[in-house]
Fold each of these.
Amino acid sequence: MQRGSNMPVARRKTRLFCMMIMLNICICVLMGVTWNLRRGNRSHQKVRIPSKRFWRTQILSESFWNKEQQRLDFLYNPIINSALSDDSLVVLPDWLNDTGPLNPCDPDYRVLTQISDYNSLPQRFQDFLLHMRCRTYSMLINQPHVCDEPPFLLLVVKSLIPHFDRRQAIRETWGRAGVLANRTVVTVFLLGSTLPLDNFPDLRIMLGHEAKLHNDLLQWDYRDSFFNLTLKEVLFLEWFSKHCPQAQYVLKGDDDVFVNTLRVIDLLEGLPDNKAKDLFIGDVISNAGPHRNQKLKYFIPESVFVGQYPPYAGGGGYLLSGELAIRLYNISQQVVLFPIDDVYTGMCLRKLGLAPTKHTGFKTFDIEKKYRSAPCIYRSLVLVHSRTPQEIIEIWPWIVNPELDCQ
């Protein structure tokens, strides 16, 4: 009797429990529908750029190069780019208005006031800063058809107009164009203009004869100087993207290096696609920073740049894939020109999320003196710096002579 009297109470508790579960389910469903509707509406709304107050909290560097790079980073930010078409949604920070001359190739006289020690800097540095934004220079000598047959390996040599003997030594040895080890090899030499104010003689007639004879010179109308080597790099990458984009690999070097071209081809043969795509190898320098001593060749003042350098391959020579060369050209538009070319290339690589790989075959700081006349040493090397034209001609037979026993 007592058990039967408790049955209605148990049923009521069960019914109440079920109603609470159903109510919770309904609430969850309603919340989910509301959230999806709101998300759907937001997907059709443009992303709003943070307010002016927010941007003013950003710390703007006092060093000129860093400040210029911050400006490019802002303008190439994908979120900001997506909203720039609607000015009502974009509030630009005040410092972006300080953009310099409308024509980037006009002298940028902001540097006189924005770089505190400008007047005390070496003349070469002052010239670089005045024209740091200019990347457009007319081409004086071009070879638009040199890659009509896409090369396996493009050898790119940085040179100066008076260095006729170096270029000829390279043509007769490691830079000989044609078919080598059943692979097509093409060679080009990169030149600017040498000016009387730099104490160079007028060699234009001789250069014109050389260009017609060998069809391997690329020359632009800019002042060929140490601080313009970065410009030479960027102009080459632009040329490459237009006239030789199908080259599989590119080796860049100075005109005083020796390259074991057979070793290069052997290294590249059968390289897996996953390694070939991002290939960039050389004599890598890590944990480096700017030199502050004005007497040094690589001097960079704090008023121009602060920070550490990214890992970079010594500019004497490095090897990369043609595909990566195209990406380097594209990303270089987002990196402010820097007066040291190999550091600049490291900056572009970092912007791509990459870093150069060290290879022991690259000796841009030479090898021990006791080994420099040992023929077999050069069989295992990829590139060594530096060698005279006479030494290059002496070494090359050691590479190609099948009778030399290096076992």
Amino acid sequence: MNDLSRDSDRLLSESRQLLIDNRVGGRHRRVTAIGRESAQVRNRHRLKKLRNIAIAALAILAFATIAGIVIDGIGFVGIVLTFFALIAAAGIFSVFPRISIPQAGDLNKGTPRQMVARTELWLESQRPALPAPAVALVDDLGMKLDLLGQQLETAPASHDAIRDIRELVGETLPEMVQSYTRVPAAMRDEDHAGATADQRLIDGLGRISGEIDTINRTIADGALDDLAVQHRYLGYRYGDGPAGDGTAIAPPQEGTPN
């Protein structure tokens, strides 16, 4: 009876994982980018593949042309071989080279923008192993990471937010996901110390998402404060009043002390 119970749990777990795989497009289908930075990396990679296909096609056609000049025509067989060579080149270079997925230990390296792009690529590669609610949180993280990368792009390297984000995104996030993926799939929905592995992962991703959102808002509030200071300065400098209410500052009268 215990064996039947374990087999049933295993089948249910595998069925649930199959549904997750289908939701994210399957394990062998093209991965959808979760953010703008990773999308740009993938687009550059596709352009590189197209460039390689074009170079290979030109090389094949050039070889066929030179061969035709040397032997006074390549004939029907030569044309067929050239055609299949073009197809083979297109097939090979449309698959290779594969996009390089960064290692978890490399996520917090480079500029904030590079860190965001690496993190998004790494998270995209982890999605097939995650439960559906966690996949939704990962997709939402992509947008927040994009905004974070924009806001930190011009910040000095010693900025407190950059230090916090490098620890949160470059260390805590991958460690948590890796801890989850090390748990056998059949045991991820088993209760352990008051919660399942799925629940802990979802809760952890939610906390990280909320913390990134808080950092984004904190940085934005600082920028809004700077804008308000500039607005007040313009009011004093050009006569719009300190509160921008149209109350001009009267210029000093002649003969009166400034």
